[in-house]
């Protein structure tokens, strides 16, 4: 006998009971079927309660459905959820996320949350307490909680993507270690770049929404309605993966501004047809450019031109900051949850064995000219690379790199020609610095631009310097 048959027999027995039995104080029902009004000496009056169509299905052994509010299972699940939420809120930014994550995974396997097993999503946060807390606050909490409200509210929630946190904890040998801050929001570390991070976040969100090829939820509903009733919710939820926008995002954490050393950039400047090396002082704003421009469509002229000037250090530092971090941006993440109504013709149920995997991230294409860059810092009388990489110019291959290229163009567009407040120090061209994690490093020792390196070195004698 199925679980549904047992419930039917229990209901028939209850309706046929004597008025005396009906008006006794009953134990809490296992499942709320109807409201009962008792009048002494009269039969029990049962007022029907409208339940969703899926609550009346007879396929109890083959499908998973939401828990109904008011049942003991739902009440226990709500209590467990609130307890977990409190533990996540209390978790320190540098705490161990593993016990809480294990508790979250166990909660999702309990009956009232089992629908989550079939929902496509990008996995659960693993790496750090900061990642777990950000995911929870950006919509992970709402995603978990919506399973408790699904039968009543009929709102599907697509969760955010767990994002990586990058902090100074355990990263002393990271190429960007001088810019990293401790986990958590307290303290002054990285406060000067708060505006830069906000500008980057808005730029990345704007780019994604402008280019995102939307699949409207209405089309998901129409497509799901053509399936068998038992498969409609599964198809609708899978289709919503293409509706909820994805975008690029920088790692979680605060990052200090690069305030010392030189940003050195080498490569073609496509708008002028020149091969260049540019050196920008992150302390004074001194700007030096050595270039060799096209004499024809193929050959480069033998002459090398040296120009000097100065620029505002604030946009220069922001551009350098974004260039360094752009290699770490995740390219296809959801930074917040999205919710969608479930049409009434779609029963909220899922075949028991319908389980999907995690979502996947996309890669980055190619485009533009390559410009090598290096953040060079003083070491023993010369400067050598702290970190280096390659920037596609004039636009990047993804939104984060594109924003970095745009910031660099803004900074370079404001160069004031004339004297420079500082001369470039001797540069160790063979030591540009490692790449940012798995990104390739820059190469500055190519024989072809050797005359440019020689010309840049010649200005160290004091030419074109501003009077102090």
Written description of the protein model:
This protein has 468 residues and is an alpha+beta fold. It has two domains: 3-50, no CATH class; 62-468, no CATH class. Helices cover 31% and strands 18% of the residues. The chain has eleven helices and 15 strands. It has helices at 3-15, 19-22, 72-90, 98-108, 129-153, 194-211, 217-225, 229-239, 313-326, 399-413, 450-457, and strands at residues 34-37, 45-48, 63-64, 155-158, 247-249, 262-269, 274-281, 286-293, 305-310, 330-333, 338-341, 350-351, 369-379, 382-393, 416-417. It has a seven-stranded antiparallel beta sheet, sandwiched between helices. Helix 3 (72-90) runs antiparallel to helix 5 and helix 7 (217-225) packs antiparallel against helix 8 (229-239).
Cα(first) to Cα(last) distance is: 95 Å
What's the number of domains? 2
Mean pLDDT: 80
Annotation, overall tally of beta strands? 15
Percentage of residues assigned to helices: 25-40%
* Helical run tally: 11
Strand content: 15-25%
Order of helical and strand elements: HHEEEHHHEHHHEEEEEHEEEEEHEH
- Based on CA inertia axes, which overall geometry fits? elongated
Q: Characterize the quaternary organization of these chains.
A: single chain
- What integer value in Å does the Rg equal? 31 Å
Query: What order do the strands of the largest sheet run in, or round the barrel if closed?
Result: 14-13-6-7-8-9-15
Poorly predicted ranges (pLDDT <50, ≥5 residues)? 1-59, 295-301, 356-366
